[in-house]
Design brief:
This protein is mainly β. The protein is built from two helices and twelve strands, in the order αββββββαββββββ. It has helices at about 1-10, 85-90, and strands at about 20-25, 40-45, 45-50, 55-60, 65-70, 75-80, 95-105, 110-120, 125-135, 140-145, 150-160, 175. Strands 7-8-9-10-11-1-2-3-4-5-6-12 form a twelve-stranded mixed β-sheet, with helices on one face. Strand 5 (about 65-70) and strand 6 form a beta hairpin. The longest helix is centred in the N-terminal third of the chain and has 9 residues, at about 1-10.
């Protein structure tokens, strides 16, 4: 039993995929982001998420725990991220406990469904239900989790495992450090 628990903790579905691109569809969509999906790219320790409308985007350095919000070539802010907003950054160096929740099909992909508890180093445990597409190497194509604002579902569509262009992960040199906001209690 102990060996099983260790093996289950070692397999982190969010830290397995070091390069991909996909479209994220969240429901409910956060205020101001209605109107479809956001494009996400990952290459190694860097992730980029486009904002609806296409002009603004966020670059996350998962290793440095830094976010860059780029609104335009002349407007860029550097921020310390809120890790619970992104399961790929939240699960980094975390303990992951898994239990089977059966099987399902999402968008034509046969999935193994699991209940996960992700506990970041020095962080609070976060429970989620994850659909891992068996025809996409176990990629977590659907995630349901509870947030302070209620239940949220994230779906990944149009998934590609090709290496994203390196230029997608650059930000303007003029990024200003934003003051750290206190965490809401």
């Amino acid at each position: 039993f102990l060996c099983l628990a260790i093996a289950a903790q070692a397999q982190n579905p969010f830290d397995t995929f070091k390069q991909f691109s996909a479209t994220i569809v969240m429901s409910p969509m956060p205020a101001g982001r209605e109107g479809g999906g956001m494009k996400v790219y990952r290459s190694g320790d860097k992730m980029r998420t486009s904002m609806p409308g296409g002009a603004a985007y966020m670059i996350m350095d998962l290793d440095q725990h830094t976010n860059y919000m780029v609104m335009s070539a002349s407007m860029c802010m550097q921020m310390t991220p809120q890790p619970q907003q992104n399961p790929f950054s939240q699960a980094r160096n975390a303990t992951v406990e898994r239990s089977s929740a059966g099987t399902d099909t999402v968008d034509g992909h046969p999935c193994k469904v699991e209940n996960l508890t992700v506990t970041p180093q020095n962080g609070e445990p976060h429970k989620m239900k994850v659909w891992e597409a068996q025809d996409l190497k176990g990629f977590p194509i659907k995630i349901e989790s509870q947030t302070s604002r209620g239940p949220v579902t994230i779906e990944y569509k149009d998934i590609s495992f090709s290496e994203p262009e390196a230029s997608l992960f650059t930000h303007p040199d003029n990024c200003r450090q934003m003051p750290t906001m206190p965490a809401p209690h």
